Amino acid sequence: MDKQAFLDALWQALQDLPQDDVLESLEYYEEILDDSMEDGMTEQEAVAQLGSPLEVAQRIRMDMPLTTLVRARAKRRHMRAWEIVLLVLGSPVWLPLLLSAVLILLSLYIVIWSVLISLYAVVLALAAAFLGSLGLAAFTMHEQDLLHGTFLLGCSLICAALSILLLLASIGLTRAVCRGTAACVRKCKKRIVGKGSVS
After folding, report:
1. Beta-carbon count within 10 A of 29 CB
2. 0.70 cut: is pTM over it?
3. Residue 57's closest CA among 28, 81, 35, 92?
4. How far is residue 52 CA from its own chain's centroid?
């Protein structure tokens, strides 16, 4: 397949997407092909290294924002009259259920982030307790009360250890939540792209 045939096939595979995005993608892949040919590849080799136009179109869709994909899929879907009537008549049932499900998921997501923020606040409180008790231990030891000063020093070290452990746990949980969010978005995109790709 030569460059122009590849770009034409890619253009056909992306016709359901907004034209600005399609043109931007075509320019990007045309530039990649031109660069590969300047580096000594033949036109066919440059096209072959990218994969088929359908695979490239799939990658382009996966890189697009989820809202753009949903909008493109909604525009592409032509509903029949009976489907519209069913949607309107059933809306008193499905619309509140859908809204409730979305709000519950959003609430759970907010709760997860609230717990993480609370963990970071506890880390800050423990770090402040470490600094405060360390200063108090030094002051107490300076005032010749070695037993209480040693006790405060031990407390300050426990606060430091707890704050470090909790900070590491909080960072791990934050990364897990971010990875989970990204995985959910990717899964939604795959479902939309999988059903919506033009062959």
Report:
1. 19
2. no
3. 28
4. 27
What are residue 63's phi and psi, to 5 degrees?
-85, -10
Q: Which ranges of the chain would DSSP assign to H, the alpha helix?
A: 3-13, 19-38, 43-50, 53-63, 66-76, 81-142, 146-196
**Cα(165)–Cα(30) distance, rounded to whole angstroms?**
51
Domain residues of the chain, as ranges? 3-76, 103-196
Contact 166, 126 (CB under 8 A): yes
Query: How far apart are the C-alpha atoms of 128 and 120, rounded to whole Å?
Result: 12
DSSP state of 78: P
Q: How confident is the model at residue 197 (pLDDT cuts 50, 70, 90)?
A: very low
Q: Which long-range contacts (C-beta less than 8 Å, at least 24 apart) are formed by 162-166?
A: 162/126, 163/123, 163/126, 163/127, 163/130, 166/119, 166/122, 166/123, 166/126
